[in-house]
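Private note to self, pasted from the team thread so I don't lose it. Backbone tokens:
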């Protein structure tokens, strides 16, 4: 079921299962572009009910994988929306050889460029995370850059979040300490992200921060900044 976040901006929640049977919240962000088409960031499984909701908003023109980890449901989304352009880091071609990827920084057309701007976290090539700014609503969309799981759906999730250092709060996973290979480049990327004009933060894992997100994100990105 879609949840409205701002004008021309929605999200859909999904509970995925991590190895070991750990339930984990995930979110797809839906952006309606200037031409009326939709861009789906971090696609989740799309059943007929969700597809009907999306169709009522517009045709799907772009499928966006924001990093090297958020691709699990991408191929299925491409089957459902064969006309959609797939956007993601170059390294995903090895994981999804059946898909052709356009670079996040490429020119995706005027309606796309007016709505979405990409900022990639440099210095962490094993993640290749790209944060997406929805320009009209001043919303930053992040994948694994930070988590904000305030209430864990199970004790297994709570333990996992505790190990990751992200339980019950907006924070970066301890994994970023291993993902970052060039701290200088990563810090510069943080500065570029925090210089963007945003007030709302939509994360792929956890609760949306409706306002005041920039200050909270600056305090949370301790493992890259």
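Design output:
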């Amino acid at each position: 079921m879609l949840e409205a976040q701002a004008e021309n901006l929605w999200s859909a929640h999904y509970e995925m299962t991590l190895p070991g049977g750990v339930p984990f919240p995930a979110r797809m962000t839906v952006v309606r572009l200037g031409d009326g088409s939709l861009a789906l960031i971090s696609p989740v499984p799309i059943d007929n009910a969700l597809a009907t909701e999306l169709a009522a908003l517009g045709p799907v023109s772009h499928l966006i994988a924001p990093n090297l980890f958020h691709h699990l449901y991408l191929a299925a989304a491409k089957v459902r929306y064969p006309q959609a352009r797939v956007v993601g880091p170059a390294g995903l071609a090895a994981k999804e050889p059946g898909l052709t990827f356009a670079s996040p920084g490429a020119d995706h057309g005027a309606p796309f460029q007016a709505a979405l701007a990409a900022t990639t976290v440099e210095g962490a090539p094993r993640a290749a995370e790209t944060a997406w700014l929805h320009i009209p609503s001043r919303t930053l969309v992040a994948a694994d850059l930070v988590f904000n799981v305030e209430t864990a759906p199970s004790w297994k999730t709570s333990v996992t979040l505790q190990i990751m250092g992200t339980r019950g709060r907006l924070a970066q996973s301890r994994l970023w300490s291993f993902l970052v290979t060039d701290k200088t480049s990563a810090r510069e990327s943080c500065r570029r992200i925090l210089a963007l004009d945003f007030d709302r933060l939509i994360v792929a894992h956890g609760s949306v921060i409706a306002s005041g997100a920039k200050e909270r994100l600056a305090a949370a990105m301790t493992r890259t900044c």
